Write the structure tokens for this entry.
Amino acid sequence: MKVLVKNEEILEICKGIGEELTKKLKGKTPLVVGVLKGACPFLCELVKYIDLPLEIDYVQISSYVGTRSSGNINIKKDLDIDIDGRDVVIVEDVIDTGITLNNLKKLLETRNPNSLIFVSLLDKPSKREVEFKADYIGKEIDDYFVVGFGIDVNEKYRNLKDICIYKE
Ligand code: IMP
Ligand code: MG
């Protein structure tokens, strides 16, 4: 498969975003939340560069059945940690239609966090169906279906070190 983002570039992205978050959240104890499963490798690399006493948690959201834009998401695994008053950094692998993070944002806002920051390794702005703008994006890409560095097709290829354009 053709490599779209090399591992070296991904690590540079993690360093850059991690350092920016360190400055932005100085003096805070952020809760870094990974969206399972795809964001795991990105989160693990990113937190190495966030020089703060942070905590880590995970949320898992099931894929939409039928009514994609209904405004509802199905939480398969909820957070273990209460976000009331917390500075929460949501870490996602790739934003496509925007539906997942748009809905997750609405849900988390009802839980009274002090702040919500959205970070995504990749963004496909041309695919947006609902309005969503992340605070930090690693790289904008065209309308490719990608795999690797956590990103899967039917649970496969998450272990590729680079992000590749999927080809059967
Ligand atoms: P959205 O709700 O359409 O923004 O979709 C976001 C989710 O769709 C991501 O968390 C991924 O799980 C999945 N996804 C979007 N684009 C890709 C891709 O190119 N490869 C694999 N999964 C993708
Ligand atoms: Mg995902």
In short: The mean pLDDT is 94. The helical segments are 7-24, 40-46, 99-109.
